[in-house]
């Protein structure tokens, strides 16, 4: 296939690719950008296209992969662009201010809940929290490993009941 024929085929396929681009991006400008990126990649890689194969499927694959790559790049960047006229960068790292108030409340309540546990449950729970393995805790406290697991389980259950205010709702 000559370059002219390939270019003509790409041009014909662009109308059928546009709805797919719009479905992926959910924005007309982004869909047009994705379509353009797809056509540029297809044209620059025309030597990789094997004549006799499905050009439309090849273009759909390029478009899907381009969209995924762009999306992953945006997520990695961690910046969300406000689409208002001002085009502010929301959550950009340069203007982010930390407020530890919520974390401090959570931490204080967690410590209070742990302190309210009976020592029978608190000791193995805190040892496990600090990185001890079940068998190490069993050796140190001179109790069976099943008892260690049970006490840690009960401690978690009690803490979960005590800290229900912090449970996330889906």
Detailed description of the structure:
With 170 residues, the chain is mostly helical. It folds into two domains: 3-94, RNA polymerase sigma factor, region 2, helix turn helix motif (Rna Polymerase Sigma Factor, Chain: A, Orthogonal Bundle); 101-166, Winged helix-like DNA-binding domain superfamily/Winged helix DNA-binding domain (Arc Repressor Mutant, subunit A, Orthogonal Bundle), CATH 1.10.10. It is 68% helix and 2% strand. The protein has seven helices and two strands. A two-stranded antiparallel sheet has the order 1-2. The model has no long low-confidence stretch (mean pLDDT 83). Belongs to the sigma-70 factor family. ECF subfamily.
